Amino acid sequence: MGNTNNSLSQLALQKFKKNFWGVFSLCVIVTIGLISVFAYVLAPDHSQNANQMHLSIHSKKPGFKVKMLTIPLNIDSKESVVSKLFFGERTQVSEIPITAYFIKDDNLVYTEYAAEGLEGLTKEIPLEAFPNQEVENYIKERTFIFGTDKYGRDYLSRIIIGSRISFFIGFIAVFISLVIGITMGSLSGYYGGKVDAAVMWLINVTWSIPTLLLVIAITLALGKGFWQVFIAVGLTMWVEVARVVRGQIISAKEMQYVTAARALGFTDFRIITRHILPNIMAPIIVISAANFAAAILIESGLSFLGIGAQPPMASWGAMIKDHYSYIILGKPYLALIPGLCIMILVMSFMLIGNALRDALDVKTS
Amino acid sequence: MINYILNKVFYALLTLFGVVTVIFLLFNVLPGDPAQMMMGQNEDSEQLALIKQKYGFDQQLSTQYAYYLNDLSPISFHSENPSDYTYLSEGKYSAAKLFTISNTTTVMKWPFLRESFTKQGKNVSQVIAETLPNTFVLAVSAITIAIIIGVLLGIVSALFKDHWLDKSIQVFSTLGMSVPSFFSAILFAWFFGFVLHEYTNLEMTGSLFELDDFGEKVEIKWKNLILPAIVLGIRPLAVVIQLMRNSLLEVFNQDYIRTARAKGLNEFQIIRKHAVKNALNPVVTAISGWFASMLAGAVFVEYIFGWNGLGKEIVNALNTLDLPVIMGSVLVIALVFIIINIFVDVIYAWLDPKVKLQ
Questions:
Q1: Which residue of A has its CA nearest to B316?
Q2: B106 by DSSP, 3-state: which?
Q3: More confident residue, B35 or A57
Q4: Which of residues 25-54 of B touch A (CB under 8 A)?
Q5: Which residue in A150, A258, B42, B170 has a CA-CA distance of 20 to 30 Å to A358?
């Protein structure tokens, strides 16, 4: 019924579609991916890095509600809509949690929110501070679905924006590892001899230093920061790619299609990129999925140690680091939520890796 | 066989040389001035010069590299001149003199990993010697837990393939691989050390050797080992389950298992006498690889449980930028990895002569 010419990739796709967990994790990954791209649209707190602090309402329980008075700061911002949508707004307002307010002689009198049992300070502000003097528009009830963190920032927003780093690191580290790994692996597998010995030596050296420690060393050399972590993780993960590519190329080299290409007088570069690489994509895809998961784990670990993304940037690992002492203060969710997020994302990549391996029929060695 | 071993050892030394070079390069292209780092806010230029001379920072990079190699090498050359970096001082090297040629003494010594920046006058080797055994105890316990439970669960999983039992073990194993170790450490410390503290009587933090309640005697507290060992074992456990299941399923398809069945052996005997032995090979390979990376994975677990091991020392050194300690620790862990690999290779060659030919 028209199903006559099934190419190998179509077959693999069919097989993949039948794998419930594979499809499920693909959905999860796509959802989290979309969330991370549109993070600032979705997050209740639109400020850059969701960094709007309200110290008076720090570490409140999920579902916490408070009246929020927004005072415009009259700062001219020349941000384009696009940059606001994707990189967040610079703070142009100051937000004050309040418990009560009334208007007296052109002044707004409000009582600041204070911890239980304490009387909040009462302050006055001239109504002129608000455009059109419609104060009601500037007082809204805010709900903090996941509560607030120890600086009184909206935890949900931090979680949403934190997904970006985890996602990014995966992409960039996998990209770097693929570029270096495929180059090194092809060179050593195709040419053999001294080139092979040199590359294998390099692989063995990198292999001997545990990934986490190597990443720590590279981040120390490059300085703290999130780009440095991206590069460091990429620089350690090429090894696995190179080993796989090398092994595949060594066996592919003996195939007749390569001999045919050689007989046609093609250059080595063309033979490798046009003939061999497309034939060995399957194991590379599988290992990239595993590397993606590994990269997320390593980044969260580095951020947990404080050498990954630096504050105020939101990163799941750093959020656990900031809040794990709260687990004995009756607020374990502050550490549990980001931890579960990491787990879900990593698990999705692992499951998708397994599903791809089954679908593409890759032998694990 | 001897030739094979020598070959392996030579290659391992070559790898080790590469590791030393990588570590040296990484830690010497640091943006900051390490001597200034040690001094902190102190701006005493005389002292700064002294420190630079002590660690050899005032020299060119290539000279520093040569000094570093000389410090690490068990057979090294030292000058008679007290102002020279390589001067054979008592405090620095514990060496046995071999011979002296024109002001240069050749000695045999323990590799010198230099002095810690922040622990006044303490050698890095000493720091490592104090902490590595604790990490070792932790890693060995973790791997033991992982092997015993992992092999058992793997067998159960393979026997009940596609049964709900198999599926739940699979879920558990995937979970184990996707939890960051610091997160599982926090979870375990919180749940078993805090929420269930009354029942388990375990503490959230604690090391193997602790002062007793009167602060007089150091005593061994084995119960502090339980939680960190389990947490550190989770990831290898997850891997062992997968490997054991897959390789057992493969073995079940072999002819000799069918023969054993045909002979009328019961399932239990088939598994115990025929299948498990042959299925263990890939597991053993994986474990040898895991052991060294566990030394590194211990970083988080030790940090959270307050276990006085090398991992906690590395985190401390990271916070105080105590570079010699980090360099030394990385080097030692890499060395352990390389040595384990030689052992595994040699054992394999001994078990299976075909390996040598490859």
A1: A305
A2: strand
A3: A57
A4: 26-27, 29-31
A5: A258
